[in-house]
Amino acid sequence: TEKRMTKNKNLMVKIEDLTGQITVLFKGQSEVFRNANDLQLDEVVAIRCSGNNELVVGHEIIFPDAVVMQKTKFDNDCGLAFISDIHVGSQKFLGEEFDNFIDWLNSEHELTQKIKYLFIVGDTVDGVGVFPGQERLLEIKTLTGQYNELARYLKRVPERITIFMCPGQHDASRVPEPQPIVDKVYAGALYDIPNLVLVPNPCLVKLFENKKEFKVQMYHGASIHTFINNIEELRMIKAHNNPAKAVKHMLKRRHLAPTHSSVTYVPNAERDPLVISETPDILCTGEVHRLDIERHNGVLI
Which of 189, 240, 266, 293 is most exposed by smallest CB count within 10 Å? Predict the structure, then answer.
C-alpha cells in the first residue's frame, strides 16, 4: 500500500493481507532491493522475510508469474496475424498501406495461405471527441462514417480468415475496462461481416484442434504507460519504443493493470476481469503504435 526510501537508501514497503499490515525493510545493497523497487501498488506478491511484529526484513519477493509449462502445437500449420491502432477516419490513417495489407491477405503468397485468424487489438477507428480539438484532425467526422469505411476494408478480408476485434479508447465503447464490444448503433456495418467476431477488451480467445487448446490473450494496453512511468528500468530504456518489455511485467504479475486507478475500470465484486487467470500462449497488445516481439517464460508477446 505504500513505498518510501529512507535516509540510508533502504526501501520501506507497507504490505497488507487479510489479517493486518506490516512494514518490510529492503536493504539498499541487497539483491532483492531492485525487485522491491519495482513493486507496484496493490499488486499481489509473497515475501520471504524475518523479524518481529514491528518490522521485518525482506529477503525474497515471489511474483505470481505466468509460465507456459508445455507448448501447444497443432498438427495442421495455422497462421495468426496481428494488427492494431488502425485509426480509420484520422488524417494520419495509412489507407494505402492498409489496402496493400488486405491485398496481400488475398494473394497466393505461401505465408498468406496459412493464415486462419486475424486479431485486431483496438483503436480501429479514430473516434469523435476523444480529445479537445480532434475534429480538426479527422478525415471522416462521424463515428458511423468511420465504421462504414472500416467495414468496407474488412469485407475484403477472405472469408477463410476469422477476424477477432476488440475495442480501444478511440472506439465506440465505454472507456472504463473491461470494455464491451463496439456499439451496434455506430458500428452496425461491422455486424454484417460473417467472418468478424467482435470481442470485449480484454478477451481470452481459445483456438481448438481436437483436444488441443491454444490461448490468445487480447488487451489493447492502456496500462502500458503506467508500467513505464513507475518502473525505473523501463523509464531508462524508453520502453515506449520497446513495449514488450512493459508487457512482460503484466505476465510477471498475472495482472493487466495491478495498480488501482492506473486505468479507468468498472469494479466487479465477483471477479477481477483484468487478472490473467489462465496463462496464454500469446499476449497481444496495441496502444503505443510500435511493433515489438519478445518471449517471457514461453509466452509470446
Answer: 293
